[in-house]
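User: Modeling request: complex.
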Amino acid sequence: MIKDILVIGTGISGLTFAIHLAEENPEVSMVLISKNELNEGNTRYAQGGIAVVSDFKKDSFEKHIEDTLSAGDGSCDPEVVRFVVEEGNERLQELIAWGTEFDTKKQKLDLAHEAGHSEKRIVHYKDKTGLQIQEALIEKIKTFPNIQLLERHTLVDLITDHHSKLKANRCYGAYVISQEEEKIIKITAKITVLSTGGAGSLYSHTTNPEIATGDGLGAAYRARVLMERLPYVQFHPTALKPQINGQTFLITEALRGAGGKLFNTAGERFMLKNDPRAELAPRDIVARGIQAEIQKQKEDYVWLDGSEIDLKQWKSHFPTILETCTSVGIELPKDPIPVVPAAHYFCGGIKVNSSSESNLKGLYAIGECSMTGLHGANRLASNSLLESLVFSRRAAKDVQSALKQKLPDHDFYNSIPEWDGDSYSNSSEIKSIKSLRLELQQLMTKYVGIFKTNEGLEFAENQIDKIYKKVNLIYNKHKLTYGLCELRNMVSIAYLITKQSQEITENRGVFYNHDYA
Ligand SMILES: Cc1cc2nc3c(=O)[nH]c(=O)nc-3n(C[C@H](O)[C@H](O)[C@H](O)COP(=O)(O)OP(=O)(O)OC[C@H]3O[C@@H](n4cnc5c(N)ncnc54)[C@H](O)[C@@H]3O)c2cc1C
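Assistant: Request completed. Predicted assembly structure:
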């Protein structure tokens, strides 16, 4: 298949990029692929909302900039922070024009408060903001005749100079598992966009869906694309302890914004001794506070008490949490909720410029898989959907001019070899894949998680190396399967996180090594 643009990932980043480009360039041919169904990814699970300055009487760009820089702990790129904050409101209006609904009060956007924000500025749709955005964007994307949508198509590897006769340091598309055709197909494109989201599945507890295995990062790593700040993994302080169908469920920060309080199992409101902002301190501080309590007490959770919030507010603001907690026997608002920290957001990723282009020409990375400089050492709550909105539009503008430059022709793309057609199997998963995945998750959680030590990192490095060698053996001996494809990426990214962690000698934001305390 030959296209102008290949977009890998159909969350907020990939979809808004494609809509922007298609609106102004109906002649450009695009294909969007997603690993699972179109709507599965981190976006649909976002509960809190988008941080945008929209009430200019009370709030200001300067306040949002200040809050972002403060959460990022001195590591944000101030120029990036400024343009993201300043462009946010315009991007939000586009999202609304494309059919996304947000809660309003007296005909104005209803703004919620979240940890680390000095003003109420989170636009939201109940506690299902992400789902609302994802569904509206999918409906919108289907209106463009020049966009082809392919579900259950999984990126395996990027096509680069290595697969061609050129030495242009360019990306020419990707090899992709087509579950429909039951083989690995070649999709060539003038521009390739990675919008593959995060890699929370590297850890035992994660708020991300299972498919968040860092595939875009893994493929970029094999294509020698520059990646930065991978060890800055944000753990959400409050995920529901009991899992639902094997998945960890997030309890939004907005609940603490509305008055939820944290207690250890001895009944002490421990966050008061950790930070003057207590439960509303930035995520890293709250997550470490909870993890430290868990390590001190017998039980592996703490309590989140929402009894100050009345049932009417629960029903109107937090209906999904209310329903989910009820389903596991927690009676709200009376009962406290058992919570644990869970891997939530990758602040690091593929290093990109202010137009979201990577160091490999023709390869853009947007959203959670990228490292733009916005988040620094810690992401401010609800700034990631904002980042996706701002960078997808910037990337679309840049791609528009990139397409006018002289690029390889059809003959060149035709000359790129197919993936060895016989090397994929969808029939059965290799037995050891599941256990190696579990072993990797446990290692990452114990030694490369919220708290690290130099000794632990060294141990993890050696163990990951062993897993890597086993995975390589399997890869060389067997046909590629979906599970092997994921594990190959997970082990590469685990290794990179561990190696980069060893190079960091100070504690900042979400990164914490006991040896530098
Ligand atoms: C529970 C939860 C709550 C959150 N709440 C908020 C919030 O309130 N506010 C906020 O700003 N942020 C929030 N976040 C973070 C935010 O949702 C994500 O950072 C953002 O949605 C990422 O969007 P994305 O488009 O970059 O990636 P995603 O939405 O994760 O989309 C990734 C896409 O890539 C595709 N993909 C992945 N691998 C492959 C592959 N190998 N081949 C083909 N396709 C692939 C997937 O199928 C998917 O379509 C939350 C995250 C979670 C998990």
